[in-house]
Batch of 4 targets.
Target 1
Amino acid sequence: MIPEIGHFALILALCLAVILAVVPAWGAWQRNTAAMAVAPGLAIGLLVFVGISFTCLSIAFLQDDFSVKVVAANSNSLLPPIYKFSALWGNHEGSLLLWALILCLWTSAVALFSSQLPLLVLSRVLSVMGAVGVGFISFSLLTSNPFERLLPGAPADGNDLNPLLQDPGLIIHPPLLYMGYVGFSVAFAFAIAALLGGRLDASWARWSRPWTNVAWGFLSLGIMLGSWWAYYELGWGGWWFWDPVENASFMPWLAGTALLHSLAVTEKRGLFKSWTLLLAIFAFSLSLLGTFMVRSGVLTSVHAFATDPARGLFILLFLAVVVGGSLVLYAFRAPAVSSRVGFAWVSRETLLLLNNVFFLVATLTVLFGTLFPLIMDALGQGKYSVGPPYFNAVFVPLMALLVPFMGLGPVSRWKSDSPQRWRAELGVPAVAALICGVTFPLLGEHYNTWVALAVVLSAWLVLGLLKDLWYRVRSAASLTRGLRRVTPSYWGMFLAHLGFAACVTGIVATSQYNIEHDLKMSPGDSKVLAGYEFHFIELAPVRGPNFVADEARFEVLRDGQLVASLAPQKRRYLATGSVMTEAAIDAGLFRDLYVAMGEPIGQDGAWAMRLHYKPMVRWMWLGAILMGLGAFTTALDKRYRRQRSAARVSGREALHGA
């Protein structure tokens, strides 16, 4: 009965989504206040019914209702309750329902926290988001019904959840990633609303920017958690593989980064209006493209959900309608909102424009590398593989060229600046950055030019930030008072750029100084790696709630002192017999020690072991956390919550044809 309630609630949600897409849009067209006023209530009702549907499917998983097809295929009676719940989105049907729920959360959030918006604008934004909801809820009901029953008879215990997904990463990573993916629908909806209205000013950017920041922050954290999950769960010791599905989330992040900076210029100077709208469309379109890639069966990946061509065709048609329709609207309406404000070539505007160019080119290079094998296969030209060598060769130089301009950005002035002032402001930071680049690699066992370059660029970025911060607070009566008057928007930028510098340093340091050994080890054996002595103490059997494992117990010593005790496992899951590697990691700010088990070798208790020494690998994830926090901090700026009366006046003028 509970699955039927969930199915019926999802059908009612589709009806509400259709009404939300049509009625407020008609009201905005006809300037009918009553029709526009129903939009917030419809948005909240949509969330209620999708929430009921999601809750019913959750109950089916937690109660082991194996008469429901998706539960039987992705859960098991021995599975711990937390993984029974997260198994809901560890499959195509459930993850699509999670997507719809998060879309409804965003839609309701806009309805509840945008009272400062003119009713005309709010109704258009919510109508666009309702139309997106129609597409995804229809996708769920027509091709991916999560409440489909198994007939005849249900299995006794279920098939089980993929062992790779029986991890805390599944609990956190997909919801965060979807919050970012789907969050770009808000920026998209604001862009379409602006095009429909034919008006785009600083107020539009001020309304749109906090939502875009929050979505970008969630996506940053989601990608970071996915990288961390791959690092410790797969047993390879890698943190990024340029997998096509990894790229599917990375491309919207790159486009969203360009969008954030473009919105800042539009808000501050009224520039890049048409370009900002196009970036908002582009970022959400890439989110939809990622959905198509993961769910169409065109990719073979550990991340991919579905292999049913019918599902791929549905989302491809939806993608064509959304992208094609928005680009046609853009072609007709963009001239009406184009910018007519000038700026000098030496100015902050130019630097932010260069930022946009770099990130857009980076997005297109990743997009080309991801789609090229699919295009060639579709044309009958054979199977092609585009891997890390291509992406590293084209992406890394772009980011290296970007960082010098990032260092200039915070200290530069709007409208017009001069190279002479830049030299006066940043001469000392430039020299200090060069000194850091020369001295830091000397701390390693050997001097590495790539690490030196990364340190120079990161130090240049950080020292430029500190110089600009000092410039802002030095005139205050005290340092504390000066820091207090710095706006949340500036602190957000500061944290995000600081996080980017940490990422650059961590990526290059761990890539260049990483040491790994694959070797045969028996209990009693030792191996020295990067000055650490790994002692294989014993091999012991371990039993978990739904698995049995062989556990290798290691002690790690340095200079005769115990540093860590590590216990990697080789698990065999009881329901399916699947074998998985569980790595053991001793984490530190400046290095990780990593041990993973391979396969047993011979009859003497020997195993293939993988030992890793990874310097500064945590800096990548620390940097991503700082970037996410920076985005959330920016959204807290009080200027995004003021001037409500002005907004309402603007809305009344629009309703009367102003």
Target 2
Amino acid sequence: MKPRMKTCTTIFTTSATKLLSVAGCIISAFGIAYQSNSVAAPANSASSSSISMAIPEPSAAHFPGTLKLDVDVTDVERKIHHVHLTIPVTTGPLTLLFPQWLPGNHSPNGVINALSGLQFTANGKPVSWTRDTLSVFAFHLNVPKDVIVLEADYQYLTAVSPAQGRVLVTPDIVNLQWNSVVLYPAGFNADGIMVEASMTYPAGWQFATALEEQKTSDSNNNKAKFLPVSLTDLVDSPVYVGRYVKRYDLSPGTEGKAGVPVRFNVFADSAESLEATPEQIEPHRNMVKQMYKVFGPGPYTHYEFLIAASENFGGTGGLEHRQSTEIGVGVNYFTKYKISAYMRGVVPHEFIHSWDGKFRRPADLMIRNFNEPMQNSLLWVYEGQTSYWTEIIAARSGLYSPTEAREALARTAASMQTRAGRTWRNLQDTTNDPIMSQRGAAKSWASWQRGSDYYPEAVLLWLEADFKIRELTHEKRSLDDFARLFFAVPQNKAQSGYATITYTFDDVVKALNAAAPFDWAGFLRSRLDSQASNNPLDTFGRSGWKLVFTDKVNEFSDAANKARNNADFAYSLGITVDKKEMISDVEWGSPAFAAKIATGATLLAVNGRTYKPERLNNAIIAAQKDKKAIELLIKSDDRYRTVSIPYFDGLRYPHLERVDGSKDRLGAALQAL
């Protein structure tokens, strides 16, 4: 074994500590696991500020007693959560943890620096604490003699602007994520810690959550007290609270799950944004029906969509949970429904995660508590197959029209075909991206560096798997058969409950072979490990369709670009320009790249005239005819320069085109069950 050399710098306070630390450095240099925080020191000692103390490993033992967590979310103007936590304790050392590794985020992105004002008391007297200098999400204390209850008071300072992170509080909507406000004792699995939570919220507001509310005689009508649950279930059950709220029932008439509520809880900036027509709600009901036909009964007793139709709250996107999901759809989700197809996919995506990700979960993503590292090797199933089913279910339910579904898939295929980074970084390696990019910083050259491509490229992988199953079984079976087997929830709940069932690569292969015998291990590894640039396009060889580029706009993409005020020239010049005339993306190897244009430059003029999207559009069309290079005036830093781009291939947008005489397997996949 070749030693791994590293530099060790430690503040030594005693000779014993020094010897142990040096030994740790020597051991780790030879690749042997060593816990650098295994050297204990007395809490509150003079030297404890410079020593990482022992943090107990999670165990199967249940924490004795119940944490009581009370959160006041009424401070909406300053966007501050005020927290009071009561912890049963015994005399001696105690380590409390703030959640670091967050489910659904696949990364250690707990916002520890937003926890502030931390104070502990016991029997009315202050108890000091020390933060671990290596594991900064850990707090060490010594519980005084004869103390059985420790009280903690602190604040969670949510982002006051998007520049600081996702906005969770506005004057009209609050998103309470329990992982942001809880401290829990180290040494226990999250399943073994019980928490009784309560929430005080603005008077007159309403809330929705997967948690069950306790029925009390308390006259305070703006305080909710919830039934005790495990820490795992608490973190998995966020709360939305709002001034303007409307609920739509999606459960009537759903096969296989009669009587189980599925609710679409919409929170908005105004009453107008809440209103949906029956024609808009019907595809969402169809989505639930189609979901049950693919996956079978859901792993929940009720399901709550927590929907923010807002321009101030948290942006668009979602975060999955077993019995609920947090989704930001934008203020125009219902009011401009005809052009909002690009936003609708997030709704089935997060719902699918109840089965794919929550009920069935990759074994290396199953952690004992929220401060144990995750591994993401199977995100191409967890997120990638969920993304595949998103497109399928959206089309089958009517959330997408058939044309919109094909345009969405064309966009995905085109983005992967032109992803230059595929020549050096394979699909499997992109599953490491959440941990590598845990703070979500934008990439300088996204098409070369690659990011979370286990979403879009895996859509193509699973499409190809579906088409292959159809081909092998003479159109009698499909990936639907895999899903019915792989995601089936045991019906004997008295024995099985809704416990998470983990899986490995071999389990995925086994279920695929049950749908249609084939060398699925070889198939998957060739797609996951390949750096061949044409790999994604193999998908359409069996589909009955092919990817083409024309000068006609892809309407699905165009709606998304207009909503974001982006001008998209990715497949022609290789640039995207935002509403501030800033070049927000440059495709690696594109004509713009060859002209040494980089992300962040400002586009000022096109052929000597002030930049406008339509002016650049017309310049590209003209260059195709007259073969004259396009001249762009750009500003980068404090430097102005004119660049000449000899591009003459015209406007290019991706579409799927039917292959005459071929079997339309894509059409069959998109057909409602």
Target 3
Amino acid sequence: MGTLTIIIIATGAFLGGGAISYFVWDKAIAKKKNKIIAEASTEAEVIRKEKELQAKEKYLQLKSEHDRLINEKNQKISAAETRIQQREASITTRIEETQRMKKELDILRENLNKQLERVEKRTEELEKQHKEQIDKLEAISGYSAEEAKKELVESLQENAKSEAIGLINEIIDEAKMTANKEAKKIVLETIQRVATETAIENAVTVFNIESDELKGRIIGREGRNIRALEAATGVEIVVDDTPEAILLSAFDPVRREIARLSLHQLVTDGRIHPARIEEVVNKTKKQIEEEIIEIGKRTTIDLGVHGLHPELVRMIGKMKYRSSYGQNLLQHSREVANLSAIMASELGLNPKIAKRAGLLHDIGKVADEEPELPHAVYGMKLAEKFKEKPEICNAIGAHHDEVEMNNLISPIVQVCDAISGARPGARREIVESYIKRLKDLEALALSYPGVLKTYAIQAGRELRVIVGSEKISDADSEKLSYEIAKRVQDEMTYPGQVKITVIRETRSINYAK
């Protein structure tokens, strides 16, 4: 029992202390709550003030930006208004100027109309006076105006014709002096800068021997040596009474050269018989072929023409043993190449292409086979075959007008070919054709009435025409020289130019007895 009492007392004591503790704890919580609320209120006030400041700053910023935009728009509007005002002022000024000019034009038009009326009246008066003068002249002369005009024209026609011929000659001379001055300068400078020797090739080569005893050895027993030599070389060997000389005759210079070298080696060696002749001729042919190639290479190097096909180089070497109208073909081609290069350079064209075309222009003459085509056309086909440029091929084919020219190099090569072939001593001219040309020239001038005698002098470069003084006047002499020159130019073919000189003289003869 005593124990149970103690437990109850203890329990009661415990319960009473808890109530006291709970009350204290609730009071502490309320105090803390009030403190938190106070702090939250303070913090909320601070945040509210910060937000108000931020909103105020944002408002001020937006207001400033708005004011700036408004100012810019106002400035643009002001500028536009200023431009409009200036334009209105300009338009107003133009309108005033137009009105002023219109008034001036009206005044000027009125003045012109008045002047035109005065001119028309004056013209009518002049026409009336002119008609009166014509009527008076017709009455005095007994001719009508048309008859007088016709007679005047007829009387002045001959004088006008003579004066016209003289004027034509002066105009032609002046045109030649002015229009062709530069061309003549270029051609003359080109010719002067290229000087080559005159080379005349014949169909016969003279082989000199030390004594006439060698002739018998060359002929051989029953002529077998000379027959073997002729058969191997294709050259006719003429052994006659000419002292210490044998003639080698052939139109092919290569064959003549092979025969000459072979004969020289045989005579030097002393062994002359058919087998030896055949051996020496074959060896000489190989040497000539090598020499031809070497000549071609040396020529291209001398002229600065590079990149040619080996076959073209060999053909260039063969030109040394060819001739055209007595002119050595290689020398002629070198001359044309140099002339073409100089002339092309003077004219501002490519001198290398011109030199190449000039060197190859006669390549068709040294072909291994005998073509049926003209040498210019065949040479053009050879150049095309060996991949030469189109302008070079055209220059080769067109230098005798057998192909139409399509570039500026072609006429240069044609002119330089003519210059090289036409210079004095370059080529032989057949005597018969030369004499016929001179006779035709004299006969042409002699066909005119009043011509007594004609003489072609200076190798056909001048024609002197002697006329009768009683049949032709001095004025007619000038007319005759012009007509003869025009007819010679139109009807005849001649190198260079022909000077026509008409001679009219009056002779009075008396005898003292």
Target 4
Amino acid sequence: MHAYRSHHCGELRKSEVGETVRLSGWVHRKRDHGGLLFIDLRDHHGLTQLVVEPEATFFADVEAVRQESVIRVEGKVIARDDEVINPNLPTGEVEIRLEKFEVLSAADDLPLPVFGEPDYPEDIRMKHRYLDLRRETLHRNIMLRSAVIKTIRDGMEDKGFTDFQTPILTASSPEGARDFLVPSRLHPGKFYALPQAPQIFKQLIMVSGFDRYYQIAPCFRDEDARADRSAGEFYQLDLEMSFVERADVFDAVGPVTRDTFAKFAGDKKVTEYPFPLITYADAMRKYGTDKPDLRCPIEMQDVSDHFRGSGFKIFASILDADQRHVIWAIPAPKGGSRAFCDRMNVWAQKQGLPGMGYMMFGHGNEAKGPLAKNIGPERSDAVREQLGLGAGDAAFFLAGLPKDFAAVAAKARVKIGEEMELTNKDSFALCWIVDFPMYEWDEERKKVEFGHNPFSMPQGGLKALNAASSDEEKLNILAYQYDIVCNGYELGSGAIRNHRPEIMYKAFEIAGYGPEVVDEKFGGMLNAFKYGAPPHGGCALGLERIVMLLAEQENIREVTMFPMNQQGEDLLLGAPAEPDAAQLKDVHIKVTPPIVEKKQ
């Protein structure tokens, strides 16, 4: 018999009754039932119930053992009586009557309970993550993560992709976040950067003649954590393909994504492939966001014409003030009660708005409310017909520049869908958002700037860039950029790349960067393009977000083995930490404390 176990703790069944077995694991729970002691023994694979009788020579040792101590036991497998069978446990039909008992590693008093998984402060969970990881839910999440990655790898290999590793110590890249810098010992005063993404390297792999690359890539970005974004580091499915158009990329990664969700979705429905394609402009107009949650069927509409020159002077004057101003309506099926409309108004005020105008439609489709009264029955009925509403429904209205209220409108749409139970929670709704603007307006710097990935191919190529003279024309240029979205989360983004040096120079020129800047920052890639670059494209999907959705978690730290906390600290090992003088000397660094301004 093996020194520590003949079986694992999730393995024993009725077929082993009568056998003598050896198990090792953690004391998950201990119970005293009228003199008999029961222990739930846990290992990575599951739980097995142990029973100790009072006459056992080691009874006192079992009484004294603490939860989470590691023990080794031997005993005979016996069948449980019918009335005490545990149908929720794979081993629930048997138990082990102990004949030998040994403590392999005694546990001190626990700073964090494992059994029962009660809520506990995050700082304690992070500091004692090894205990937190013993909890069933988190343990299961981490195993799910591993299974998801294996499924993705298998899918990519089946699609003809090859796994290549790209450098970790590299140069700074323009991914939109701050770099983590690494000082060089051999080159005083110079620094490496940890890769925000393998963007440049994966494009160089295509230039090097490899056809289909993928990697489960570590990425490092010095940005603040959010519930759906890790602090410091994360992993992504990174891929690139040569001689492809957008549809080829979609046909490669889309089915792998769909199959991965379907495998782990349980009873939840997953969008069939091909996924819906929604333009960026339509997404913003219908949903107020480029990350729409399509589980909610509500679509917003522009109803400006019904309010133009109407008796509702507030909206009419807003429309007259600026031709860019619009009135958006958010339909609220089944929301036609005063209580619900008042509740939504209070919610809007908490979002920083004075409120939201609304109409309710009663018996005979009659419109009610101050807004309806001001614009009259004919216009109100036209609004109702456009929105496809009827008796018992309502609509909410927001006015002004869409960019100023779209975010709140998007939240309101989701909230209405949830409150009215219109959102299908038992589904994963996937889609592609396409045709992103190549550029956006930087209000702070008063200039045109890249809106997404600067290495994307503009639609229309060099001709479209040369034809754009005014800022407005530049902002109307679209790019071959796309995002994949699920349930309101951006899973990933990508693009057909700009592989032509002359187009890249012009694209950067429009954003205010001269050829000398492009040569200095991206000379390695540009030089490669000058020696024959294939048309290529790809994308990257965030692994933690995929697993977070599949595990039904709201925080990405619940699917990460050793995450940093909200402040970007590793409480387990104490990072970041102050280096000692010798370490600083090696890399030619002197630390200057930040200057704290005195309050007046």
